[in-house]
Amino acid sequence: MRRFLPLLAAASLLLVLMAATAPVAHGYNITKILAQHPEFSTFNHYLSITHLANDINRRLTITVLAVDNAGMADVLSRHYSLLTIRNVLALHVLTDYYGAKKLHQLTKGSTLASSIFQSSGHAPGTTGYINISDHRAGKVSFITEDAGGASPVSFVKSIKEMPYNLSILQVNRIMSSPEAEAPVAAPPPVNLTELMAKKGCKAFADLLLAEADVLKTFEDNLDGGLTVFCPIDSAVKAFAAKYKNLTAEGKSSLLLYHGVPIYFSPQLLKSNAGVLTTLASTDGPKKNYHFSVKTDGLDITVKTHIITATVQSTVIDQDPDAIYAVNKVLEPRELFKVDLADAPAPAGSKKAHKGASSSDAAAGPDEAPSDQEASDSSAFRLAAAGRCLAASIAGLAAAVVLAV
Ligand SMILES: *[C@@H]1O[C@H](CO)[C@@H](O)[C@H](O)[C@H]1NC(C)=O
Ligand SMILES: *[C@@H]1O[C@H](CO)[C@@H](O)[C@H](O)[C@H]1NC(C)=O
Ligand SMILES: *[C@@H]1O[C@H](CO)[C@@H](O)[C@H](O)[C@H]1NC(C)=O
Ligand SMILES: *[C@@H]1O[C@H](CO)[C@@H](O)[C@H](O)[C@H]1NC(C)=O
Ligand SMILES: *[C@@H]1O[C@H](CO)[C@@H](O)[C@H](O)[C@H]1NC(C)=O
């Protein structure tokens, strides 16, 4: 028992340290919150299958106007396509925080709020803006700017408030907007290799086509969200000898390293995506296959510990999938050693570090998470930190068992 206690103390200290170093994140999960309210189960289901739940979780400040199952039944009876339902529900996700209190304290009794439909690119003019009015009797109503003669919907009650990040309010029915309700042409199904081949990444597409299991892993992530960084043909050609040298497992890992199981629109990438977990990442602390994405002036760069690649073009951006062409094969440090010729020289001293040891060079590109706390990917990083924490706890538990 004597030896046991210090270990426990160490474990709790570790917990405290990890909590302190974990990225600050709102870390909410709308699906999980609404799951506690079965009267909103249909609304919750549709937030998930339209991927709006991901959009909501990514935002730092958001208000969701939810309708109960009867309200959703009314929408579903109109037999909209899933894409139209997405637009209609997107009107009900406001990009600002409105708790019940704020609703009753609107300056001049009303305000215009923007919804994520407004910023979706599907909304012309002022569509997607919601007029919130606080009436004299304390009644609050919501109406779209293009309601087309429909009457406003009413605030019923507050479901959950996490000031000033997330507010979920019940409204009595779905708001109307002809623009949001319009039929949406279905985007063509995503064929990764075909799209890549058409836009300068044919050699990389061929490598994927040669590894059926790897390609399947990419494809399995298409529905849930996927971002691929495909190296352009000249980059794959220059890398051919190194690729040949890899073991079969190394080849799979290298290819998987180019996929991230989460959707990053160009805008999200630019707002500093931070350190990303890839399809090659495992839970263990050693083989983690991460890289970081940063904005460098107008460029978006992808940094592994070995190389820095630049995003050259957007091959496709079709929520929930995006493919970006990069000018280099992404080499993970788990598979490659720093090649001194490739290592970035410190600014202003091109030759000064010629004799630098490879460990100095390896410390060059900074893969550590940036301090910027408000990153849209913070929830994602938090999840990664959580897995890492779980692994450490498992490790400590093992150590405790061994010590006793
Ligand atoms: C709300 O988001 C901010 C970042 O904008 C974060 O610092 C804060 O901790 C969050 N608050 C809650 C209650 O999650
Ligand atoms: C959110 O919660 C749901 C239900 O608990 C779960 O299935 C889903 O994986 C969670 N999403 C994230 C991003 O953690
Ligand atoms: C909201 O609508 C009401 C009623 O039509 C109108 O009086 C008010 O000016 C509108 N508010 C804003 C901010 O547009
Ligand atoms: C995708 O395109 C490739 C050619 O790049 C083709 O071989 C493959 O059959 C296509 N896959 C699907 C699912 O259509
Ligand atoms: C391939 O591996 C051999 C043996 O390890 C090594 O000598 C050679 O430099 C490697 N080639 C490349 C291009 O990495």
TrEMBL record:
<feature type="compositionally biased region" description="Low complexity">
    <location>
        <begin position="347"/>
        <end position="367"/>
    </location>
</feature>
<dbReference type="InterPro" id="IPR036378">
    <property type="entry name" value="FAS1_dom_sf"/>
</dbReference>
<dbReference type="Pfam" id="PF02469">
    <property type="entry name" value="Fasciclin"/>
</dbReference>
<dbReference type="GO" id="GO:0005886">
    <property type="term" value="C:plasma membrane"/>
</dbReference>
<keyword id="KW-0449">Lipoprotein</keyword>
<keyword id="KW-0336">GPI-anchor</keyword>
<keyword id="KW-1003">Cell membrane</keyword>
<feature type="domain" description="FAS1">
    <location>
        <begin position="27"/>
        <end position="175"/>
    </location>
</feature>
<dbReference type="GO" id="GO:0098552">
    <property type="term" value="C:side of membrane"/>
</dbReference>
<dbReference type="InterPro" id="IPR000782">
    <property type="entry name" value="FAS1_domain"/>
</dbReference>
<keyword id="KW-0472">Membrane</keyword>
<keyword id="KW-0677">Repeat</keyword>
<comment type="similarity">
    <text>Belongs to the fasciclin-like AGP family.</text>
</comment>
<comment type="function">
    <text>May be a cell surface adhesion protein.</text>
</comment>
<protein>
    <recommendedName>
        <fullName>FAS1 domain-containing protein</fullName>
    </recommendedName>
</protein>
<dbReference type="InterPro" id="IPR033254">
    <property type="entry name" value="Plant_FLA"/>
</dbReference>
<feature type="signal peptide">
    <location>
        <begin position="1"/>
        <end position="27"/>
    </location>
</feature>
<keyword id="KW-0732">Signal</keyword>
<keyword id="KW-0325">Glycoprotein</keyword>
<feature type="region of interest" description="Disordered">
    <location>
        <begin position="347"/>
        <end position="375"/>
    </location>
</feature>
<feature type="domain" description="FAS1">
    <location>
        <begin position="188"/>
        <end position="330"/>
    </location>
</feature>
<keyword id="KW-0654">Proteoglycan</keyword>
